[in-house]
Amino acid sequence: MRELNIESRRNICKICPIYSPSRDVCSSSLWLNPETNDVSTYRKSGYIRGCGCHISLKTRNPNSRCIAGKW
Q1: How far is Cα 19 from Cα 37, in angstroms, rounded to an integer?
Q2: Residue 70: inside a domain, yes or no?
Q3: Total count of domains within the chain
């Protein structure tokens, strides 16, 4: 996978169903199936919990990775 720039990473986060735009975070109160983009409010097999990170900070760090593998 090629390295994405900050803007590309942010754009991916902004369309993610567990992105919380009001707080600019990956919502840690939601679970995401990275294969289907289905969202749950409780843990399910194959789902990943949002990391709670501040997107504006995480996308700037070249060593950070999306917990759902989107970048």
Answers
A1: 12
A2: no
A3: 1
H or E element in which residue 19 lies: strand 19-20
Q: What is the pTM of this model?
A: 0.88
Within a domain: 63:
no
- Contact present, 26 and 14 (Cβ < 8 Å): no
Cα–Cα dist 25/51, whole Å = 8
Token readout for 11 is 């754009």
**Selection from 12, 16, 23, 21 nearest residue 59 by Cα:** 12
Residue 68 CA to residue 27 CA, distance in Å, equals 12
pLDDT in single tens digits along all 71 residues of the chain = 567 999 999 999 999 999 999 999 999 999 999 999 999 999 999 999 999 999 999 999 999 999 999 99
